[in-house]
Amino acid sequence: MNNPKISIITVVYNGVQHIEQTIQSVISQDYNNIEYIIIDGGSRDGTQEVIKKYEKDVAYWISEKDAGIYHAMNKGWKKASGEWIGILNADDYYLEGIISKVVAAFTASKAAIVYGKMTKLRAIGGESYFKEVAPNLAIMEQTMGIFHPSTFVSRKVYEDLNGFNEKYRLSADYDFLLRAYQKKYAFHYLDEVLTVFRIGGVSNTNCQSFKEGYQLLLENNSPYASQMKRAIYRCYFKKAYKQIINTLVNVFGLQKMLEERIKKKWR
Q: What residues contact 84, with CB distance under 8 A and at least 6 apart?
């Protein structure tokens, strides 16, 4: 096929702050065979009104209560009819022209999975700071070596692996891609920044993702499970350290100093 269909799925719940930018980044792509699917978890903050504004550009959308983010993603890919699938969360957005590049990479490589670089976006003191990060597929059996928002997967892989294991509330994307990696599906690296990812999502708020990572590495017979177990303790130590720092900052009024220190790391 000269113009194969690619499906993009956005899952959202009360994401009115950024959902419009997310939608626009999909529908403004220069590739003209995109099936856009939005799965909303029953938002009550104006998200649905934004989606309705762009209904003519959305192939399918639904708003109903779900059992979590990966349940919503599973609903999305099962609705998809494209040859390949990308999942773009409602805090994130694609860069211009990336879908054409992804389709070209799939077509040329015949790979089952195409993945690329990502830019992290962090808002600090009303300013936006960006940091480009590169994936490392070689560490997939140790930790999540590639970035889900910058990864596109053949629908056949979703069907073969039955999508996301919903028992993992924060790490089912890692479990899914690790299973694909271990089953020797062909991965192809596209040396491009594909997606902008906002720091501050649910997986950044606690250490549960490391606990889940340990469990899924055990279940997938990774030799690096013990390393992930140690990462759990490091996470708790880091969390406690941050709590102490935040307490001191609040007590002594050092918010501006801490903000400048964070900005310096991101410049």
A: 4, 6, 7, 102, 103, 106, 114, 152, 153, 154, 155
CA angle 239, 245, 249 (to 5 degrees): 140
Neighbouring C-beta atoms of residue 199, cutoff 10 Å: 14
Beta bridge partners of residue 130, listed in sequence order: 121
The two structure tokens encoding residue 261? 């220190």
Q: Which residue ranges form the domains of the chain, and what is each CATH number?
A: 6-201 (3.90.550.10)
Q: Give pLDDT tens digits for 192-215.
A: 999 999 986 444 447 999 999 999
Q: How many angstroms separate the CA atoms of 254 and 259, rounded?
A: 9
Full-model pTM: 0.93
User: What are the C-alpha distances in Å from 94 to residues 21, 65, 98, 99, 245?
Assistant: 9, 26, 7, 9, 35
What would the pLDDT profile of 97-111 be if each residue is shown by its tens digit? 999 999 999 999 999
